Amino acid sequence: MPIAINLLPWREIAREKIRKDFFKNLLICTVLALLCCIAISVVLNGQLSNQQSRNSYLISHIALLDEKINQIKNISIQREQLDFRMEVIQSLQSYRPMVVHVFDQLVQTLPKGVYYTSLKRKDQQLTISGMASANGQVSELMRKLNASSWLKNPELISIVENDQDQALKDFVLTVDVNQLMHQQDERDL
Question: What's the CA gap between 23 and 21, in Å, rounded?
């Protein structure tokens, strides 16, 4: 067998082969990394668009629910207003017979020679202004008002001579409306 001497620069060829393999592997890794980045980007964009569509769905339904909540609040406010109106109407209905009884008592307790000129009501108190020919008639009126079942606690505010007719006396007194009689009258109804 003949001896073959290789005079080719084998080390340089080996280095060149290693260098080519390195660049080939580097190119393959770069392409694979680029493909992985593209794949991850596609997956993340798909998830992002899916989440955005879910968010828009939730936002639209939240807006619908907010509108329904506002409708419920408006209905609740209207209901409260109606309840308040009903209470006012019921209280007015319950006071209707009381007014009749109070006016009836005012007429029944009125002695001869006494005249009412005005009546004012504030809460459960009546302010009565009138004229009488004598102080004793005002006293008698107060006794009759105190004895009434619908009126109580008459209190004389003033009694003065009338400017136009010296024989008459102008008086002002207050009397309370008896709430107990009003409540009893409601129970009787």
Answer: 6
Print the domain residue range for 143: 110-188
Integer-rounded Cα Rg, in Å, for the chain is 52
Write the CATH number for 130: 3.30.70.2830
Angle value at C-alpha 123, between 120 and 129, nearest 5 degrees: 20
The answer on 150 and 164 residing in a single domain is yes
pLDDT for res 41: 96
- Note if the pTM is more than 0.85: no
- For residue 189, is pLDDT > 60? no
Q: How many domains does the chain divide into?
A: 2
Per the CB < 8 A criterion, the answer to whether 102 and 177 are in contact is yes
At 125, give phi and psi (nearest 5°): -125, 135
The residue assigned the tokens 């807006």 is 63
The structure tokens listed for 78 are 């209207």
